[in-house]
């Protein structure tokens, strides 16, 4: 594999000194880009886009052609695992993801197929290899997975949800069924992320998008415990380099202390948490990634720049910050505003590293 030309992102994840704050955007390849919409139309639908390594590679690289980003993220989805477990993922036009089957009982859990990372999910590993070759060392490639709890919500509800009616009922009434499901998911996620690392992912992120919907004790028992187990089961070095792990719980600002003890190298933050407070809590245990409100990208370029400056100052001087949005970029953002954001980080951050 080609020599890595820009290792700013990996260095910051390990809290090593850098010349400026590295930057990437969650969901940086996606519907806000006209070129993405064009490739998706060619591929037919979203799943065909994920399953074809050349298309997945093309859309992964699209945001890098526009902006000076410091990392690429594999184009795929967190729902590849439930799909490979036999639930039948599909997308209705204009709607979010849906599953043909749901998981509501112990019998449903026992009937799940334990997916193989090389067989059932081999198309993801092909995409990782194809993207690494195309990147040719330009920036590192991030692999990812959903957290067991977040994946479980989709599997139990049969798609996206606002109140997690069935998942919460299971958690409170039948915790043994929930634990059986989370246990299977944790094993699948560990194998899946390790396979991505072997295929060439240079850092991995666990997306716990719905962890923030849990109560204080339930977060530890049903989400963090399983993410910690995964972190401990990951191959932390490959090809002579450390492979850093990032944990992102949306709405997890009050649990950073416990998250920092998981063994992860970095924590992702949404915009409701102050980077100053977060840094105080975690000390030198982990790096921090985030945390601009993605809706700032609806504002003017001047206002975006002001917000970037405020967040840089909030983290302060020194290593260990990766600039990102606090959640995925919205589909109605003007691509030029995303450009103004990335450029502001590039221009304004060097003074925090002198
Ligand atoms: O083109 C389309 O219409 C499909 C939209 C889309 C895209 C672009 C979906 C369906 N997934 C993706 C790609 C995707 N999903 C990436 C790509 C890499 C990148 O550029 O960042 C990633 C990292 C994800 C992860 C993902 N999928 C998460 C976790 C991150 C987050 O934003 O919270 C979640 C919750 C999903 C589920 C999902 N897949 C797709 C949609 C629309 C959703 C959200 C459904 C819901 O609201 O519950």
Protein described:
With 354 residues, the protein is of the alpha/beta class. The protein has a single domain (8-12, 19-270), classed as TIM Barrel (Alpha-Beta Barrel), CATH 3.20.20. Helices cover 47% and strands 12% of the residues. The protein has 15 helices and eleven strands. It has a seven-stranded parallel sheet with strand order 1-4-5-8-9-10-11. Strand 6 (237-238) and strand 7 (241-242) form a beta hairpin. Helix 10 packs parallel to helix 11. The protein is globular, with a radius of gyration of 19 Å. The mean pLDDT is 97. Bound molecules: coproporphyrinogen I. Coproporphyrinogen I binds next to loops.
Strand fraction equals 5-15%
Number of helices: 15
Into which percent range does the helicity of residues fall? 40-55%
Helix/strand class: alpha/beta
What is the spatial order of strands in the main beta sheet?
Answer: 1-4-5-8-9-10-11
Mean pLDDT level:
97
Separation, N- and C-terminal Cα atoms: 32 Å
Radius of gyration: 19 Å
- H/E series: HHHHEHEEHHEHHHEHEEEHEHEHEH
CATH architecture verdict: Alpha-Beta Barrel
Morphology: globular
Which stretches are poorly predicted, pLDDT < 50 over at least 5 residues? none
Could you tell me the number of beta strands? 11
Biggest sheet layout: 7 strands, parallel
CATH topology: TIM Barrel
Bound ligands: coproporphyrinogen I
CATH class category: Alpha Beta
The tally of structural domains comes to 1
Characteristics:
47% helix; seven-stranded parallel sheet; TIM Barrel; 354 residues; uroporphyrinogen decarboxylase activity; alpha/beta; EC 4.1.1.37; Uroporphyrinogen_deCO2ase_HemE; binds coproporphyrinogen I; porphyrin biosynthesis
């Amino acid at each position: 594999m080609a020599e890595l030309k820009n290792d700013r992102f990996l260095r910051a994840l390990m809290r090593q000194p850098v010349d400026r704050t590295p930057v990437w955007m969650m969901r940086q390849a996606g519907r806000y880009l006209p070129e993405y919409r064009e490739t998706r139309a060619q591929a037919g639908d979203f799943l065909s886009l994920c399953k074809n390594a050349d298309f997945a590679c093309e859309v992964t690289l699209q945001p890098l052609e526009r902006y000076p980003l410091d990392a690429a993220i594999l184009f795929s989805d967190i729902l590849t695992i439930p799909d490979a477990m036999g639930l039948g993922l599909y997308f209705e036009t204009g709607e979010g993801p849906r599953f043909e089957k749901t998981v509501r009982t112990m019998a449903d859990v026992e009937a799940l197929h334990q997916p193989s990372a090389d067989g059932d999910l081999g198309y993801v590993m092909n995409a990782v290899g194809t993207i690494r070759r195309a990147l040719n060392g330009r920036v590192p490639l991030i692999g990812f997975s959903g957290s067991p709890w977040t994946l479980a919500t989709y599997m139990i509800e049969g798609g996206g949800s606002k109140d997690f009616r069935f998942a919460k009922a299971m958690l409170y009434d039948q915790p043994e069924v929930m634990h059986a499901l989370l246990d299977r998911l944790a094993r699948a996620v560990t194998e899946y992320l390790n396979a991505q690392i072997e295929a060439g992912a240079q850092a991995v992120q666990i997306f716990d998008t719905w962890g923030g919907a849990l109560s204080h004790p339930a977060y530890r028992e049903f989400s963090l415990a399983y993410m910690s187990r995964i972190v401990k089961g990951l191959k932390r070095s490959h090809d002579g380099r450390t492979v850093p792990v990032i944990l992102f719980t949306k709405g997890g600002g009050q649990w950073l202390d416990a998250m920092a003890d998981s063994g992860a190298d970095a924590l992702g933050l949404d915009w409701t948490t102050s980077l100053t407070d977060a840094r105080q809590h975690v000390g030198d245990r982990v790096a921090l990634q985030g945390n601009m409100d993605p809706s700032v990208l609806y504002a003017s370029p001047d206002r975006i720049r002001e917000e970037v400056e405020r967040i840089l100052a909030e983290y302060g001087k020194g290593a260990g910050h990766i600039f990102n949005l606090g959640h995925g970029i919205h589909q109605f953002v003007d691509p030029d505003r995303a450009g103004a954001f990335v450029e502001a980080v590039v221009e304004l951050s060097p003074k925090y590293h002198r």
